[in-house]
Amino acid sequence: MQVNKINLALGLVAASMALPMVAFAAADQEAAIKDPNNWAFPRGNYSNHGYSNLAQINKGNVKNLKAAWTFATGVNRGHEGSPVVVGNMMYVHTAFPNNVYALDLSDNQKIVWSYFPKQDPSVQAVMCCDVVNRGLGFGDGKIFLQQNDGMLVALDAKTGDKVWEVKNLDPKVGATNTNAPHVIKDKVLTGCSGAEFGVRCFFVAYNIKDGSLAWKAYSLGPDSEALIGPDFNKDNPQYSALSVYQDVNGGNKEGGSFKKIPNDQLKVGEKELGTRTWLKPQAVKDGWQHGGGAVWGWWPYDPKTNLVYYGTANPSVWNPDVRPGDNKWSMTIFARDLDTGMAKWGMQMTPHDEWDYDGINEVILFDKGGKTYAWHHDRNGFIYTWQANNGNLVSAQKVHPFVNWASDVDLKTGVPNKDSRYSTHQDYNAKGICPAALGTKDQQPAAYSPKTGLMYTPLNHVCMSYEPVESKYVAGQPWVGATLTMFAGPDGVMGGFGAYEPMTNKKVWYNKEKFSAWGGALTTAGDLVFYGTLDRWFKAVDSQTGKELWKFQVGSGVIGNAFTYGNKGKQYVGVYSGIGGWAGVAMNLGMTKDTDALGAAGGYKELTKYNAAPGGGALNVFAL
């Protein structure tokens, strides 16, 4: 007899409501995550592994993988993230206007219900890098949608009826949302986009029952608003340094104006760094009050310590000369208490960012030797590993030798040793900077296999020229202040995919790709890694060697995350197609000038010659 797992899971919620501990509010989700037939969390489990214990599809038979079914979303823009699968139900999302479909997997993917948000079309104009949405959340008998217009919506998982909604932000000032809501215990976590519009962003938790505010932590500003208390960075006070780089020659455009201060001269353990490291702004509006620090990645949770981990994005504006100082706490990995939002530790990876190296990429938790570690492939081209409970930095290595803006990272302070030849300044065109602003990895999440102990990460292999220009802040208007061009890196390709040992972050194997591997990775107990590329390929490779074992050409470029589920004893693997995001938005909008789409139009112009196809959203599912 086929068990309707979603009804069983939803029943757990009713039972949990009688218990005194609110921590069990999402008991249905916790139960669903334990069953490998489900995909109930944005990256599969709380640790962000992007891993499945399903092994029916394995490296011995993956060559026999065939298309099982498809679903057209009806939206012709970039499709990121992956569906949610719980029992016999799959919940599918789209790019703007963020439609949601509930499909019955036991009845030929019949549409059980659908939800069509009524969003103002003008929201699209204030979305930096395509009108993407990165997925849905599940828990407490609800499906959670974070709409692009800032509305966080809770829908009844059985009927699609709206249970509650809350306004998270205001698009009129350039603030939007692209992230998947993350349901953890009795909280729904969401973020904020809009650094390219001068928005001061935040990480926020709402109570799962009614959408009331639990806590809100700003990326920048006073400690009281960033939820930074007296115990912050207790084990690593050097991360809370008042000054890391000092302006030594008044902005010499040829040589770089900032000099790293020696470790023994740093003023460590300081407070109020979210304001004090934004020095001498041209006006108040150019400082931390409109300082960016977007939050839109995938966020893991460690039940042992009750900490949730995430990264903050670039400081506003892209012209670094108008915001002297380290610009904390942009470009930072934070660990926060889930219940209170208070920051346990935080390390800024790119102080005084000069290249738009957002720090939002996902954190992945893994265990080794009885300890839990936090791993992060940053857009700045370095891979970091910390001890998760206290932030001790274990390793920081270049993901590829072509990274040139810094020589290495100081393991004591986490501060990069910048190469002044690639520093950027207003009205000076700095050339040959590697990586480009979209980083060695952008939104596409890496994956971890507990079976091999390796991390598997998609790669961008792109460099750039970068010229900051004068730009004034106007609410609701783009505030970038830089002109970019992008081009392939020294290997002559624009992408790759690699496996890394996470304690040393040394490469185990690396495959070149003609274009960026912009799709999120999936690892399985079948010794496979799946990922997608901008030129329409969905691939499976051997997790130990990287050898390509299977590929299928889908209808449009892949920027979605591979996922897997089981139904009626059969394993399926799937991925969204629909090119877009920063790399593909120019193709969708017909942009042809090299500097269009913040440089992506020129960098990826060859995509039109490689059957990338404009974004036509679809879900592609495969089985043996």
Describe the structure.
With 624 residues, the protein is mainly beta. The protein is 7% helix and 33% strand. The protein has a 5-stranded mixed beta sheet, with no helix packed on it. A 4-stranded antiparallel beta sheet has the order 2-40-39-38, with no helix packed on it. Strands 3-4-5-6 form a 4-stranded antiparallel beta sheet. The relative contact order is 0.14. The model is unreliable at 1-22 and 251-255 (pLDDT under 50).
Short recap of the structure:
This protein has about 625 residues and is mostly beta strands.
Topology:
Elements: H1 5-16, H2 27-34, E1 51-52, E2 66-72, E3 84-86, E4 89-93, E5 100-104, E6 110-115, E7 136-139, E8 142-146, E9 151-156, E10 162-167, E11 182-184, E12 187-190, E13 202-207, E14 213-218, H3 223-226, E15 245-247, E16 258-260, H4 273-276, E17 301-302, E18 307-311, E19 332-337, E20 343-348, E21 363-368, E22 371-377, E23 382-387, E24 393-398, E25 406-409, E26 416-418, E27 430-433, E28 447-449, E29 454-460, E30 462-468, E31 482-488, E32 495-501, E33 506-513, E34 522-524, E35 528-532, E36 537-542, E37 548-553, E38 563-567, E39 570-577, H5 581-589, H6 600-603, E40 618-623
Parallel strand pairs: 1-34
Antiparallel strand pairs: 2-40, 3-4, 4-5, 5-6, 7-8, 8-9, 9-10, 11-12, 12-13, 13-14, 15-16, 17-18, 18-19, 19-20, 21-22, 22-23, 23-24, 25-26, 27-30, 28-29, 29-32, 30-31, 32-33, 34-35, 35-36, 36-37, 38-39, 39-40
Helix pairs in contact: 1-2
